[in-house]
Amino acid sequence: MGDSSGSVSIDIETISLSGKEHIIHTSCGSVSVAVLGDQDKPALVTYPDLALNHMSCFQGLFFCPEASSLLLHNFCIYHICPPGHQVGNHLGAAAISSDIPVPSVDDLADQVADIVDYFGLDAVMCMGVTAGAYILTLFATKYRERVIGLILVSPLCKAPSWTEWLYNKFMSNLLYFYGMCGLMKDCLLQRYFSKEVRGSDVVPESEIVQACRSLLDERQSTNVSRFLQAINGQVCRRHDITDGLKKLQCRTLIFVGEDSPFHSEAIHMTTELDRRYSALVEVQACGSMVTEEQPHAMLIPMEYFLMGYGLYRPCCLSGSPRSPLSPSCISPELLTPESMGLKLKPIKTRVPLQV
Protein backbone atom coordinates (compact mmCIF):
# COMPACT_ATOMS: atom_id res chain seq x y z
CA MET A 1 0.00 0.00 0.00
CA GLY A 2 1.22 3.48 -0.81
CA ASP A 3 1.48 6.32 1.64
CA SER A 4 0.39 9.91 1.51
CA SER A 5 1.24 12.69 3.90
CA GLY A 6 -1.64 13.48 6.22
CA SER A 7 -3.45 10.22 5.46
CA VAL A 8 -4.00 7.47 8.00
CA SER A 9 -5.96 4.27 7.48
CA ILE A 10 -7.80 2.27 10.12
CA ASP A 11 -8.64 -1.23 8.88
CA ILE A 12 -11.94 -2.65 10.04
CA GLU A 13 -11.86 -6.45 10.35
CA THR A 14 -14.83 -6.95 8.08
CA ILE A 15 -13.97 -8.90 4.95
CA SER A 16 -16.85 -10.18 2.83
CA LEU A 17 -18.36 -9.76 -0.60
CA SER A 18 -18.53 -6.06 0.23
CA GLY A 19 -14.73 -5.91 0.57
CA LYS A 20 -12.36 -4.94 3.35
CA GLU A 21 -13.10 -1.50 4.71
CA HIS A 22 -10.49 1.19 5.23
CA ILE A 23 -11.23 4.50 6.95
CA ILE A 24 -8.89 7.03 5.34
CA HIS A 25 -8.32 10.48 6.78
CA THR A 26 -7.86 12.94 3.92
CA SER A 27 -7.40 16.69 3.74
CA CYS A 28 -11.20 16.94 3.32
CA GLY A 29 -12.16 14.64 6.21
CA SER A 30 -12.55 10.90 6.77
CA VAL A 31 -13.92 8.63 4.08
CA SER A 32 -14.65 4.91 3.89
CA VAL A 33 -13.16 2.82 1.08
CA ALA A 34 -14.08 -0.86 0.68
CA VAL A 35 -11.39 -2.75 -1.23
CA LEU A 36 -12.39 -5.92 -3.06
CA GLY A 37 -9.96 -8.13 -4.98
CA ASP A 38 -6.25 -8.39 -5.69
CA GLN A 39 -4.51 -5.06 -5.15
CA ASP A 40 -1.85 -6.01 -7.69
CA LYS A 41 -4.47 -5.66 -10.44
CA PRO A 42 -5.48 -2.38 -12.12
CA ALA A 43 -7.82 -0.24 -10.04
CA LEU A 44 -11.53 0.39 -10.61
CA VAL A 45 -12.83 3.21 -8.39
CA THR A 46 -16.58 3.48 -7.80
CA TYR A 47 -18.69 6.29 -6.36
CA PRO A 48 -22.44 5.98 -5.61
CA ASP A 49 -25.35 8.37 -5.93
CA LEU A 50 -26.96 10.49 -3.22
CA ALA A 51 -27.86 8.65 0.03
CA LEU A 52 -26.31 5.40 -1.24
CA ASN A 53 -23.16 3.41 -0.61
CA HIS A 54 -21.52 0.64 -2.62
CA MET A 55 -23.82 -2.05 -1.22
CA SER A 56 -27.00 -0.20 -2.16
CA CYS A 57 -25.74 1.19 -5.49
CA PHE A 58 -23.50 -1.50 -7.03
CA GLN A 59 -24.69 -4.71 -5.38
CA GLY A 60 -26.88 -5.73 -8.32
CA LEU A 61 -24.03 -5.32 -10.78
CA PHE A 62 -21.45 -7.16 -8.69
CA PHE A 63 -23.88 -9.93 -7.77
CA CYS A 64 -24.46 -10.53 -11.49
CA PRO A 65 -22.08 -13.48 -12.11
CA GLU A 66 -20.99 -12.45 -15.62
CA ALA A 67 -20.38 -8.82 -14.71
CA SER A 68 -18.65 -9.77 -11.46
CA SER A 69 -16.31 -12.17 -13.29
CA LEU A 70 -15.53 -9.49 -15.90
CA LEU A 71 -14.71 -6.81 -13.34
CA LEU A 72 -13.01 -8.89 -10.64
CA HIS A 73 -10.95 -10.80 -13.21
CA ASN A 74 -9.46 -7.52 -14.46
CA PHE A 75 -9.58 -5.11 -11.52
CA CYS A 76 -9.20 -4.55 -7.83
CA ILE A 77 -12.32 -2.62 -6.83
CA TYR A 78 -12.07 0.47 -4.61
CA HIS A 79 -15.60 1.39 -3.49
CA ILE A 80 -15.61 4.97 -2.18
CA CYS A 81 -18.56 5.92 0.03
CA PRO A 82 -19.54 9.59 0.43
CA PRO A 83 -18.60 10.84 3.92
CA GLY A 84 -20.88 9.26 6.52
CA HIS A 85 -22.54 6.84 4.07
CA GLN A 86 -20.58 3.65 4.75
CA VAL A 87 -22.13 0.30 5.56
CA GLY A 88 -23.06 -0.43 9.18
CA ASN A 89 -22.85 1.61 12.34
CA HIS A 90 -19.15 1.41 13.19
CA LEU A 91 -16.50 4.12 13.04
CA GLY A 92 -17.46 7.08 10.89
CA ALA A 93 -21.09 6.08 10.27
CA ALA A 94 -22.44 8.35 13.01
CA ALA A 95 -23.78 11.81 12.23
CA ILE A 96 -21.01 14.16 11.13
CA SER A 97 -20.58 17.12 13.44
CA SER A 98 -22.13 20.39 12.30
CA ASP A 99 -18.82 22.05 13.23
CA ILE A 100 -17.20 20.39 10.22
CA PRO A 101 -17.70 22.49 7.05
CA VAL A 102 -19.80 20.98 4.26
CA PRO A 103 -17.40 19.94 1.47
CA SER A 104 -17.70 21.35 -2.02
CA VAL A 105 -17.79 19.10 -5.08
CA ASP A 106 -14.18 20.11 -5.70
CA ASP A 107 -13.31 18.97 -2.17
CA LEU A 108 -14.92 15.60 -2.89
CA ALA A 109 -13.01 15.27 -6.18
CA ASP A 110 -9.76 16.15 -4.39
CA GLN A 111 -10.65 13.55 -1.77
CA VAL A 112 -10.72 10.93 -4.55
CA ALA A 113 -7.22 12.07 -5.52
CA ASP A 114 -6.07 11.66 -1.89
CA ILE A 115 -7.47 8.10 -1.86
CA VAL A 116 -5.75 7.23 -5.14
CA ASP A 117 -2.49 8.59 -3.71
CA TYR A 118 -2.92 6.71 -0.44
CA PHE A 119 -3.22 3.34 -2.14
CA GLY A 120 -0.30 4.16 -4.43
CA LEU A 121 -2.36 3.97 -7.61
CA ASP A 122 -1.02 5.57 -10.78
CA ALA A 123 -4.09 5.70 -13.03
CA VAL A 124 -7.53 4.26 -12.44
CA MET A 125 -10.73 3.25 -14.19
CA CYS A 126 -13.77 5.02 -12.71
CA MET A 127 -17.43 4.01 -12.40
CA GLY A 128 -19.97 6.40 -10.90
CA VAL A 129 -23.73 6.78 -10.67
CA THR A 130 -25.45 10.20 -11.07
CA ALA A 131 -23.96 12.44 -8.33
CA GLY A 132 -21.09 9.96 -7.99
CA ALA A 133 -20.59 10.09 -11.76
CA TYR A 134 -20.31 13.87 -11.52
CA ILE A 135 -17.66 13.63 -8.75
CA LEU A 136 -15.58 11.15 -10.74
CA THR A 137 -15.93 13.14 -13.99
CA LEU A 138 -14.82 16.26 -12.12
CA PHE A 139 -11.90 14.25 -10.74
CA ALA A 140 -11.05 13.21 -14.32
CA THR A 141 -11.11 16.81 -15.57
CA LYS A 142 -8.89 18.00 -12.70
CA TYR A 143 -6.48 15.04 -12.75
CA ARG A 144 -6.60 13.91 -16.39
CA GLU A 145 -3.45 11.79 -16.19
CA ARG A 146 -4.91 9.80 -13.27
CA VAL A 147 -7.93 8.40 -15.17
CA ILE A 148 -7.71 5.82 -17.95
CA GLY A 149 -11.46 5.41 -18.51
CA LEU A 150 -14.91 6.44 -17.29
CA ILE A 151 -18.01 4.25 -16.98
CA LEU A 152 -20.80 6.63 -16.04
CA VAL A 153 -24.39 5.76 -15.15
CA SER A 154 -27.03 8.51 -15.56
CA PRO A 155 -24.32 11.16 -15.12
CA LEU A 156 -24.58 14.86 -14.36
CA CYS A 157 -22.31 17.50 -15.84
CA LYS A 158 -24.23 20.80 -15.64
CA ALA A 159 -25.13 23.03 -12.72
CA PRO A 160 -28.55 22.26 -11.22
CA SER A 161 -31.49 23.69 -13.15
CA TRP A 162 -33.98 25.76 -11.16
CA THR A 163 -36.37 22.82 -11.21
CA GLU A 164 -33.76 20.41 -9.83
CA TRP A 165 -32.53 22.98 -7.31
CA LEU A 166 -36.04 23.56 -5.94
CA TYR A 167 -36.74 19.82 -5.77
CA ASN A 168 -33.47 19.18 -3.96
CA LYS A 169 -34.20 22.11 -1.64
CA PHE A 170 -37.51 20.44 -0.81
CA MET A 171 -35.62 17.23 0.03
CA SER A 172 -33.16 19.20 2.18
CA ASN A 173 -36.06 20.61 4.18
CA LEU A 174 -37.58 17.14 4.56
CA LEU A 175 -34.28 15.84 5.91
CA TYR A 176 -33.92 18.75 8.30
CA PHE A 177 -37.42 18.58 9.78
CA TYR A 178 -38.38 14.90 9.42
CA GLY A 179 -35.19 12.94 8.76
CA MET A 180 -35.26 9.88 6.52
CA CYS A 181 -39.07 9.74 6.53
CA GLY A 182 -41.32 7.84 4.17
CA LEU A 183 -41.82 10.83 1.85
CA MET A 184 -38.06 11.40 1.66
CA LYS A 185 -37.55 7.77 0.70
CA ASP A 186 -40.20 8.08 -2.00
CA CYS A 187 -38.38 11.11 -3.44
CA LEU A 188 -35.10 9.21 -3.54
CA LEU A 189 -36.67 6.09 -5.04
CA GLN A 190 -38.16 8.23 -7.83
CA ARG A 191 -34.63 9.48 -8.46
CA TYR A 192 -33.23 5.95 -8.69
CA PHE A 193 -35.85 3.69 -10.29
CA SER A 194 -38.42 3.58 -13.08
CA LYS A 195 -42.12 3.71 -12.33
CA GLU A 196 -42.52 0.05 -13.33
CA VAL A 197 -40.40 -1.29 -10.48
CA ARG A 198 -41.59 1.30 -7.94
CA GLY A 199 -45.07 -0.17 -8.20
CA SER A 200 -48.46 1.45 -7.75
CA ASP A 201 -51.70 1.07 -5.81
CA VAL A 202 -52.33 -2.25 -7.54
CA VAL A 203 -48.77 -3.43 -8.27
CA PRO A 204 -46.39 -3.93 -5.33
CA GLU A 205 -42.86 -2.55 -5.25
CA SER A 206 -40.25 -4.84 -6.73
CA GLU A 207 -37.77 -6.57 -4.43
CA ILE A 208 -34.92 -4.27 -5.45
CA VAL A 209 -36.97 -1.21 -4.49
CA GLN A 210 -38.00 -2.78 -1.18
CA ALA A 211 -34.37 -3.63 -0.44
CA CYS A 212 -33.24 -0.10 -1.27
CA ARG A 213 -36.00 1.41 0.89
CA SER A 214 -34.80 -0.74 3.78
CA LEU A 215 -31.15 0.25 3.26
CA LEU A 216 -32.08 3.93 3.30
CA ASP A 217 -33.10 3.45 6.94
CA GLU A 218 -29.39 3.06 7.75
CA ARG A 219 -28.52 6.54 6.48
CA GLN A 220 -28.00 9.39 8.90
CA SER A 221 -30.21 12.20 7.61
CA THR A 222 -27.61 14.85 8.51
CA ASN A 223 -24.95 13.05 6.46
CA VAL A 224 -27.28 12.73 3.45
CA SER A 225 -28.13 16.41 3.81
CA ARG A 226 -24.42 17.32 3.71
CA PHE A 227 -23.89 15.41 0.46
CA LEU A 228 -27.04 17.00 -0.97
CA GLN A 229 -25.74 20.45 -0.01
CA ALA A 230 -22.44 19.70 -1.72
CA ILE A 231 -24.20 19.08 -5.04
CA ASN A 232 -27.09 21.52 -4.62
CA GLY A 233 -26.28 24.06 -1.90
CA GLN A 234 -26.38 27.82 -2.44
CA VAL A 235 -22.71 28.25 -1.61
CA CYS A 236 -20.95 25.07 -2.76
CA ARG A 237 -23.32 23.58 -5.33
CA ARG A 238 -21.95 21.69 -8.30
CA HIS A 239 -20.80 23.77 -11.24
CA ASP A 240 -20.98 23.20 -14.98
CA ILE A 241 -18.03 21.08 -16.15
CA THR A 242 -19.11 20.88 -19.80
CA ASP A 243 -16.10 22.87 -21.03
CA GLY A 244 -13.72 20.35 -19.49
CA LEU A 245 -15.27 17.29 -21.15
CA LYS A 246 -13.51 17.64 -24.51
CA LYS A 247 -10.16 17.85 -22.71
CA LEU A 248 -10.58 14.41 -21.17
CA GLN A 249 -7.82 12.02 -22.20
CA CYS A 250 -9.78 8.82 -21.65
CA ARG A 251 -12.57 6.79 -23.23
CA THR A 252 -16.02 7.19 -21.76
CA LEU A 253 -18.97 4.78 -21.72
CA ILE A 254 -22.30 6.24 -20.58
CA PHE A 255 -25.37 4.27 -19.52
CA VAL A 256 -28.70 5.95 -18.87
CA GLY A 257 -32.19 4.61 -18.29
CA GLU A 258 -34.76 6.07 -20.64
CA ASP A 259 -37.00 6.76 -17.61
CA SER A 260 -34.24 8.51 -15.66
CA PRO A 261 -34.94 12.09 -14.51
CA PHE A 262 -31.42 12.81 -15.78
CA HIS A 263 -31.85 11.33 -19.25
CA SER A 264 -31.49 14.68 -21.06
CA GLU A 265 -28.38 15.48 -19.00
CA ALA A 266 -26.72 12.25 -20.18
CA ILE A 267 -27.61 13.07 -23.79
CA HIS A 268 -26.12 16.55 -23.40
CA MET A 269 -22.94 15.11 -21.90
CA THR A 270 -22.57 12.68 -24.81
CA THR A 271 -22.78 15.51 -27.35
CA GLU A 272 -20.02 17.40 -25.54
CA LEU A 273 -17.56 14.50 -25.26
CA ASP A 274 -15.11 13.68 -28.01
CA ARG A 275 -17.29 11.39 -30.11
CA ARG A 276 -14.29 9.33 -31.21
CA TYR A 277 -13.80 8.07 -27.67
CA SER A 278 -17.28 7.94 -26.17
CA ALA A 279 -20.50 5.96 -26.52
CA LEU A 280 -23.98 6.15 -25.06
CA VAL A 281 -26.15 3.17 -24.10
CA GLU A 282 -29.80 3.96 -23.40
CA VAL A 283 -31.54 1.23 -21.44
CA GLN A 284 -35.25 0.93 -22.06
CA ALA A 285 -37.81 0.69 -19.23
CA CYS A 286 -35.16 1.65 -16.67
CA GLY A 287 -34.53 4.52 -14.24
CA SER A 288 -31.26 6.15 -13.25
CA MET A 289 -29.71 3.28 -11.30
CA VAL A 290 -29.05 0.84 -14.14
CA THR A 291 -26.54 -0.95 -11.87
CA GLU A 292 -29.44 -2.21 -9.73
CA GLU A 293 -32.50 -2.20 -11.99
CA GLN A 294 -31.01 -3.78 -15.14
CA PRO A 295 -27.39 -4.73 -14.46
CA HIS A 296 -27.35 -7.37 -17.22
CA ALA A 297 -27.91 -4.59 -19.75
CA MET A 298 -24.45 -3.26 -18.88
CA LEU A 299 -22.52 -6.47 -19.50
CA ILE A 300 -21.92 -6.65 -23.26
CA PRO A 301 -21.23 -2.90 -23.73
CA MET A 302 -18.73 -3.09 -20.86
CA GLU A 303 -17.09 -6.13 -22.44
CA TYR A 304 -16.55 -4.29 -25.71
CA PHE A 305 -15.43 -1.17 -23.88
CA LEU A 306 -12.84 -3.06 -21.82
CA MET A 307 -11.59 -5.00 -24.84
CA GLY A 308 -10.34 -1.65 -26.08
CA TYR A 309 -7.90 -1.87 -23.15
CA GLY A 310 -6.98 -5.49 -23.85
CA LEU A 311 -9.18 -6.76 -21.00
CA TYR A 312 -11.65 -9.66 -21.20
CA ARG A 313 -13.71 -12.09 -19.15
CA PRO A 314 -12.26 -15.47 -18.13
CA CYS A 315 -12.70 -18.10 -20.84
CA CYS A 316 -14.43 -20.47 -18.41
CA LEU A 317 -17.53 -18.26 -18.57
CA SER A 318 -17.40 -17.38 -22.27
CA GLY A 319 -20.27 -19.80 -22.98
CA SER A 320 -22.76 -17.77 -20.96
CA PRO A 321 -26.14 -17.59 -22.68
CA ARG A 322 -26.35 -13.90 -21.77
CA SER A 323 -22.97 -13.04 -23.23
CA PRO A 324 -21.50 -15.70 -25.55
CA LEU A 325 -18.50 -13.57 -26.38
CA SER A 326 -14.82 -14.31 -26.47
CA PRO A 327 -12.05 -12.18 -27.98
CA SER A 328 -11.52 -14.61 -30.85
CA CYS A 329 -15.09 -14.35 -32.17
CA ILE A 330 -15.35 -10.55 -32.30
CA SER A 331 -14.94 -8.75 -35.59
CA PRO A 332 -12.16 -6.12 -35.50
CA GLU A 333 -14.51 -3.38 -36.73
CA LEU A 334 -16.61 -3.82 -33.59
CA LEU A 335 -13.69 -2.78 -31.44
CA THR A 336 -13.64 0.77 -32.81
CA PRO A 337 -14.58 3.57 -30.38
CA GLU A 338 -17.75 4.19 -32.40
CA SER A 339 -18.90 0.65 -31.59
CA MET A 340 -18.20 0.51 -27.88
CA GLY A 341 -21.97 0.38 -27.33
CA LEU A 342 -24.10 -2.25 -29.03
CA LYS A 343 -27.59 -2.14 -30.42
CA LEU A 344 -29.03 -4.92 -28.34
CA LYS A 345 -32.45 -5.32 -26.76
CA PRO A 346 -33.37 -4.14 -24.14
CA ILE A 347 -30.67 -1.57 -24.90
CA LYS A 348 -31.04 1.25 -27.40
CA THR A 349 -27.55 2.48 -28.18
CA ARG A 350 -26.66 5.78 -29.75
CA VAL A 351 -23.50 5.42 -31.79
CA PRO A 352 -21.87 8.70 -32.86
CA LEU A 353 -21.22 9.23 -36.55
CA GLN A 354 -17.66 9.31 -37.86
CA VAL A 355 -16.26 12.79 -38.17
Automatic annotation (TrEMBL):
Q: Which InterPro entries match?
A: AB_hydrolase_fold (IPR029058), NDRG (IPR004142)
Name of protein: Pollen-specific protein SF21-like protein
Transmembrane intervals = none
The organism's place on the tree of life at top rank: Eukaryota
A Pfam family per the record? Ndr
Family in the record: Belongs to the NDRG family.
